[in-house]
Specification:
heterodimer; A: Glucose Oxidase, domain 1; Rossmann fold; seven-stranded mixed beta barrel; B: seven-stranded antiparallel sheet; 38 strands; 19% strand
Amino acid sequence: MKPIFCCLEDGTLFEGVSVNEPVECAGLLSFYTGVVGYQEVITDPANLGKIIVYTYPLIGNYGVNSEDAESASPKVEAILAKEYPPYYSNFRAEMSLCDYLATSKTLLGHKFDTRAMMVYMREHGEMGAVISTHQLTANEVRDRLAKTQHAEYEPENSPIACDRAVPTARAEVIDFGASRSFYRHIASLGIDAACDSESAEIVIVSDAPYYAVEDKRKIDLVKSRLGEKPILGFGHGCAIVAQACGAAVKKLPFGDHGLNIPVKHRGGGRNEITVQNHNYVVIPGGSTECLFTNIHDGTCEGFVCKEARAAGANFLPNEAWFQSMLDAVK
Amino acid sequence: MPKRTDIKKILIIGSGPIVIGQACEFDYSGSQACKAFREEGYQTVLVNSNPATIMTDPGMADRTYIEPLTLESVAKIIERERPDALLPTLGGQMGLNLGTFLEREGILKKYGCELIGADERAIARAEDRELFKETMQSIGIRVPRSGIARSIEEGMQVIKYVGFPAILRPAYTMGGAGGATAYNMEEFERMLAFALETSPIHQTLIEESVLGWKEIEFEVIRDCADNVICVTSMENIDPMGVHTGDSVVVAPAQTLTMPEMAHLVELSKKVIRAVGINGGGTNIQYAVNPENGDVVIIEINPRVSRSSALASKATGFPIARVAAKLAVGLTLDEIKNDITGKTYSDFEPTVDYVVMKVCRFAFEKFPQADPTLNTSMKAVGEAMAIGRNFKEALQKGIRSLEIGRYGLGSDGKDLKERERRDMDLIRRKLVQPNAERLFFIRYAIENGMSTDEIYELSKIDPWFIENIRELVEFEKQFEGKSLVSIPAETLREAKQLGYSDIQLAHMLETDEEQVRMRRKVLGIESTYYLVDTCAGEFEAEKPYFYSTYETLDQSRTTSNPKKVIILGGGPNRIGQGIEFDYCCVHAAYACREEGYEAIIINCNPETVSTDFDTSDKLYFEPLTREDVLGIVDREKPMGVIVQLGGQTPLNLSLPLKRAGVHILGTSPEQIDRAEDRKLFSELVNKLGLRQTINDTATSVKEALEKARRIGYPVLVRPSYVLGGRAMEIVYDDTDLMAFMELATEASPERPVLIDKFLEDAIEVDVDAISDGETTLVCGVMEHIERAGVHSGDSACSLPPYSLSDDIVAEIKRQTYLLAQELEVRGLMNVQYAVKNGEIYILEVNPRASRTVPFVGKATGIPWARVATKIMLGKSLKEQGITQEVVPKHVAVKEAVFPFVRFPGVDVVLGPEMKSTGEVMGIDLNFGNAFIKAQIAAGQNLPSKGNVFLSLADRDKHEAVEIATKLRELGFDIVATEGTGRVLSQAGIPVRVIPKIGEGRPDAIDLIKNNEIALVINTPSGKKARKHEILIRSTIVARGIPIITTIAGAKATLVGLETARKQGATVRSLQEYHAG
């Protein structure tokens, strides 16, 4: 239990205490507003390179279990909470959150005023930060960040066979950072992603870490596949596919990272409350049309580009909406 | 989807009087509905029998009917008003049942009125036990093994495959009324009979017990476009087996993982779709097996409920307001989120705090009642607290309850050492759900009991137990420490764990003020965070606030010099209820009308005062000195209003004033002068007025001497009590000695007060208002029951129905004198007793009384609002109020009691208040108004049949008069021997039956065989005989009307006679007040 500091690149400091051994780490300071799901957030490959602040103050309540992990190991740089209670309770729990983080030496900080941090990010945007036992200046933080290499994600999750006799489609997945629940979800939509890539009818671009969105190599890779087969992108995969189609994307000052984001389909019908975790939105225009809209701020949550036979969504859609995307690009 | 244009006028049904299971939350939801409909341009008609509500303010609906909530009376209103639609989902179970029955009886169809919010099919799928089971099974959700019984015989079949323990759930009841858990055949038979009786359709579900499973609730909302959102989850700390209304509840749920939560949300969405709610909300209760995660659905409420009010206040999402808009066809994505002002209602709120709901019980009022908590709700009120962690929320919750505790122990009020070490007691208290169980977890931990063992005994999730353990461990740092030696960081941490200054003072052996000063020196002061629906993700336009100890303060304090803080009434309890919330709401309105910033502090989630748009700013905080001062320090208001929120804020007036806070209105010293007996006697003497002879005593010997000198009967009570607590009328030395034994044990240094009791005196309640220059009497209310019945429990009539003009004039004169002498600025209430033409002052309360809303509704003037403006410096003249109002119509208030919840408790009235709510009857004459009040209070007055008459010896001389009248009205009389003899001698036909135990059939047999339509039974003395109590509680359990006073009987007869001659009038308040 040592005092630690979350030092922002603009010089702002937030103080807390480390629950485990404090290791200095750097990354994009981001947040998560869900009341549950801390374990999923930690293990989601799309959260590589991030320091996550949980807005819900109690983190660790139900421990950690192997079923709910989104990948083999923690992916985030560090997690910061208001309170980490040193006990947990749930029939599926296998160990405490703190013990779980021990092997990967992922920093768990608590006693942070996480609301103050959320409000700061809301007002100043998500930004780079370093967690340290020392109070670092803005320059020190920036130096440290400049030295930080973004990890290249090596896929560690594999597709799940779809249990339908006749799958809706066979798909090849370009895995830039797919979580286990991503594979479970597409399987539940009737997508056979375990097929060999030759027989695939569509290509699906998975979620990815935020820094992958502006990674030209990834965009080019997707671009090279355009026209061949319909391409769908999800999570940050949406922004990558959109750029491959020539559409512009915008980095949000602070992204959507929660379980409660309301989305409307341009075709009308029932709205959906979606789970989202992204920092970029597509700017529709030209041949890129907006398919899904955020009910709160009207931003584009998904697009269709008929010309390129491509579409994307910032979230994992339900079956009806997925079908509408497929229909639009077929 | 745009709102419907085919409907113009909407009828809203309120929930009636406050009873256990149905409280202020429905005033809150009904008021929101009225406002929402008005905003959308609909005409509104409201019916509710409860005058203490904000919703029945003439300004809330276009037409307001204060009428009994019966099929007959609502049908008349529909006939008269011809609404296009009826909204049954915001008036609690009362509104829902009425709506359903009106539909079933064809009344809605006849007048072209449609149910909106939930149609009859949807209601039936949720409420009818059989249909519910089918519906749930059709979507693959498991329900506990169960069967339906409509008779004892059917029940006997069902129990064979359900097995023991079994839960009984009567259909169409609220708050689990009539519900029970049976562990054996004998219990089962008895409980089943009672449950069938309680259900209005004589249907009971007998269900496999999932005792000890986790109880998790969800609030979901669906619009007509099939959009569904989940507002929040809630986890009951008490596991299954305790009614959720009696459980400590935490929101959001703390011990579910994401997949488990997602699964339950998914199920909830399926449920609301399957049930078919297409413009409203539903509360869903699940039981989750803590060993393996198995889920069964227990029940749903297809309406706004107590839980949804809590969910609203916990998240900032106004469920009732949104539900009302959905009912007229708007969709979630069209309704703005008023808290953020930016986003829409089609989203799921998220929180960055922990909310705790704790329950307030009133077992001290009903010593014979069983204090074990089970599936039938017993709590009379609740408080909600918000903190940044579980421990902070819990400790704030406990001190919000106003049960004399300032946190979870270590406040100097813990059990005595011996009991705290009594492991048998502790184990018992852990096994048997009860109101103090969390404290016993603490004691168990102190005694070294393991979390596993506590869990095994209580089935309370280990996570909650560990939180309490953390508190117990933390406190060890205080051992041997003083205020100076305790490190600042420990002190700060203590505040973050929710410790009050009183607890810290106790642990550091100093006083509250010292702790406060020390904190200020160290810079450890409360900061304020927001309830904003979105965990800070969006900037909120109209959030509300809670205190915590963080680095950032978001209190958004203005430098507005015109700023007033209004202290609310805290949790509902007997003696302090919705009436005071009504006053506080009006105070907020008044402040805003006068251009002042109105700030409310309150912790009761059921109320209108804690609605986000009632005031300019709301602090959801406990009403203790420390918590109020924290806000005052930050806000720096020009003054604080304490006289409108009842006893709770009033008790704070002197401490606040001593801390330098300016109290608006009547000064705390004058309030004290009226409360302090000695000072008050001097005041009465000074004014040349009259009090009953009284004295005080500190020992049994002294009490006996003084009582004899004053002359029996005397009214005795311990000093400094509320709501007539422990007050008794004693008729002789024996009774007095018995009382003294109890009273002196309760408070050794406090003297006992002895007053001459005026037998058969008429009691009069007067509400008055004064600005220092002018004093006006708002209303003179003549009680129906004689002095000796607590004024809160007595029916009363405005204007008086039997007092002479001279007496009323003299009462008014005395009132003016008192107001002048006490320098009243605002409201004042005086209670008088009139006997043989003499007027005695019983008490003076220089504050808003319980009757203020009733007087407001009867006279058409919102007196609490007028009083607030006086406190802000606007005279009555300036407000244009210079005339007293003596209405041409008559308004009668009647009290409503919770006896049906406490089987075996005697129902007689006395000086200790027992009612939870009130109703009003209004008509052109006393008789009809009185009968309406009786019907509204649930007295099913018959027009024919047998009346069982059994009078105490001292009342027997009244028997002939009453019986004659009853005969004239066409009733037959059944009496026990004594009363029967008196009647026979007078030549009145009577059927005499044996006393209990002296032969059969006796009164209980007749009651059980439904041969008795009305009971008039006056108790034989203070110590009612056992069989009398048995008779009375049997009557209550079976819903037979019972009258326990001669005065009540006479008034009822007058009423029945009037009603027979001339039917009741159906007229709206707006029409009455227009003259």
